């Protein structure tokens, strides 16, 4: 032990064992470990004994071992250091050629191309390559690890394996489990402090070794060694290694072995089920889940009493699912995630239940799409690769029962009992194959092999001559009918017993152009009830039925299957039962074999329905341009009938059907395009349909398709269906009673609203308002004040509302308040702790120092002091002063924080992804230059991808912003980021406006005299060129992005004028040309006007501007009428007065000249005004228009100097009567009326303007990556609303609904009901009188009557 300590001291190594107590585990900074002096001291000795090992002496160049960290004791650390430095020991890495011990742990790489195994007996780690066709090959790497049964106790440690996606590295981690201990003692204080003593101990660190399979270079492990890793090392996609410390998750690049990112996960850890600060047992359950979900790049995290959260490795919240309370923490759970992360499965079972439950969640919508009972002994849950189906393995006796479930339909597709799988051995599912460790080998088994013994195998023959049954003598034949442009294949059923009489004729595969009629034909029974036909690419099974008394036959399609690309090569019929064939093996032209499970004679199977829907989808793609020709085919009605008979049996089968290879389709799309409205209605009426997008780009849906095709009835049905399910609270399959005390936190059930049903509603909202405005308004009203509580994640939403069981909820906000969302985990602070500590110590240096030290007792938390030279009374005085100051500050802060509160509710905008932009599309691996430029243009210059909100804001009408739901969205965006972006933009514009107006106003001449200098004007004009040019570029981007709608907004004209005119003035000054005064004056005018219009984003000026614009829109017709009226009078007066010479119009003044001295008149004087161009304004038509306009208010000066003319006076009277008296007064009254109405619509018009401004900021001020910010563009938007506002809104809706009723009809009905009640009351009074008479005169008299009367009185 002394040698070990000396070695550590000599090497200057900081131990990985934290021996401090009473302090939490902190992230240590990076320590650089230098072994150069050790290598120098020992290299000479090793060189004398063995020159070959000199290269291995370096810590950074050892064989295959990349990282190593062994924790647990100083002895173990010393041994690890000695082994790594080869101080008299054996080789560091012991390679194993073969081993004969059982495999205990199996793990796979993220892409399932490599398998890692580990044996507990001898600690051997092996890596095997895996191929989907051939299975596992021989091991490519085998090594003996330092972990085995001696240092891995079963109850106190656990081993985790991980392989990189390229097979370059493999990691093994040992996690030591520290369990919580409970000690009994009669000392109550000691019992309370048991947990405190345990808490002082640090959580045990994990030991790990990372091996390199393909090279032998060891990396610098100083950073990993400096971290106190508390979990396993996991390789994820994109060459990344993930490790966990107490508060952080770290991501390392396996290409360069550098730290890429650190994410704080302490909030997740504290919310984990069974979390404990004195035990790490809960971490074992977490790492069991994370080891699988991290392979796909996600953190699947169970939440206490809330459900499950899904995060990506960057710390961004993808979704939050809600399950029953207590189940995660009190039951056995298994989790699984699909390859793309869009589906999450959770299995749980409780002791009191007879069965387990499997829940399937959809990540984009947060909906639980399926919930069904499964065996309680389930031990493996795994999704099929590239398919929306899930496999469950459970124990049945000593064997394994394997089940295949369809996630979207919630139906059991296949089930089989396997005898050669062992539930006690490690078992994994890779692709469509099971891999299980048997001894020291890996065995591969295909999923659902043909285990049952077959009776016969019959190969069908391709022929056209026909196939005859044994009893009935019916023959099926095929023939080709040549038609212009298309040759059809006809199937014919003939009666051999009646001279080959034709009983039925039908088209077979009419979508092909046939050359010959050779197909596969076979009767499935001897009574000619069913037959099978296989042609070029389809397999069809028909049932024969007689047409009543008619001798002809009719066919009913029972099953159909279609190959998408390949043609059928061979067909083999397998019979497992003596009577009915069960399997049909179809070999395609690419030698791929497809096994089809055939239905029974009167059986409708789920596989038959799925295959029929797939055929409809393929045929719809083929007949996309000519749907009418497909409608004329008989098979169209056969397919429709087959689907119709299956709707009630499998109502959930029409949500989404997977084709494999990450391809899927939605049958509702095909039904709508084929015009099968009755099937669409029946599917919706089953109440099991989930509206989804039909493509990956999320641009097509059933509702959008119905709107495009103008199917009004189905649009109304779909809208009502979506709103109904959004408002309805979901009740899971398992029902528990709710306790009477609602204030208790021990709830056994959480009821959750389903806004995910409206996933497709946001993209359809704009089209609904265009073509179905009543439905759009209905959606807006139903979505406003949509209260929510239990499904709101408290840790994510920055609000105190959301729990109705704790009593009345209150908020201090005076109006509608958007709720901030924190859906991104903060960055790790591992590398900043030392800097913060040094900064705080520097700041504390200048603080006032006292002669005593203060600290806090760890047991009570009280503030105590330890002065050096004071007695008890002085200490008491100092403590009183200190606590009084603290108490005063706390009181002041509390009074400042105290605000008036109101009853409030937490509400949600029930439109998922309404503000979310589509994900960024990835380019090809080697895109061309044109492709790069095209992508750059569509992403940065003129963004083409928009969110539904941006489409509504830029192209919607003001009526769409009349409801509270849109106001909540706009307020959230404005408070979150848009206000800051706008203030930056508006502040820069004010700088431009002030500079330009100031420069132009100071001096009249902007350009100096020849030879003069510009002086202070030169730099300012350069600034005035740069700023307007930046704004002009933004306008050009907007113009290119929305060319049509850009010119429909008059705000853009003022924007262009306020940028172009000052820019032109500045450029002219730079080139030493004086701008015209008119250009300068108009530039200043437009700059000021646009400054006012820019302020429309604020509520005050914005509402005023909106009202002015609305008034202008309403009276535009009157303005046009007045303009035409002025134009007509101007033309008439122009014709009348244009020939009058100006000399007859000018003013003439006559007078006399008087001598001031004598007062005598010395002569006469006459003054005549010199005629100008505008003396007679009626000589030019443009001046005539201006003169006529002056008649409205300025006066009649242009005609008062003209000689009186009856025609002129008549026109003056007509104009004054019509224009001045009638039209102007109508204009005044109309403006008054419009203004009173605009006060109501002014707010929604202002919201429309602000929304448009926000959309422009999103598209042209934010980068594409910023538009993916989860906190700015969340999945759902929450807001706080006053309870009074909610009640007033509900009352308003009720009044509107009642206003649609016929009040007279209701009044008449109430009167009739009143009359009927009066009649009934009279009859009842008569019956009571008869009873009283009978009581007074009883039949038997005596005591009976007395007792009866007494009883009546008592009653």
From TrEMBL:
Region of interest (Disordered), ranges: 804-832
Positions in coiled-coil regions: 1303-1334
The keyword Transmembrane belongs to this UniProt entry's keyword annotation: yes
Example of a GO cellular component annotation carried by this entry: plasma membrane
Residues of the Ion transport domain: 994-1236
Any GO molecular function: monoatomic ion channel activity
Protein name according to UniProt: Ion transport domain-containing protein
Keyword Transmembrane helix: yes
Domain of life, source organism: Eukaryota
Feature: compositional bias, Basic residues: 819-832
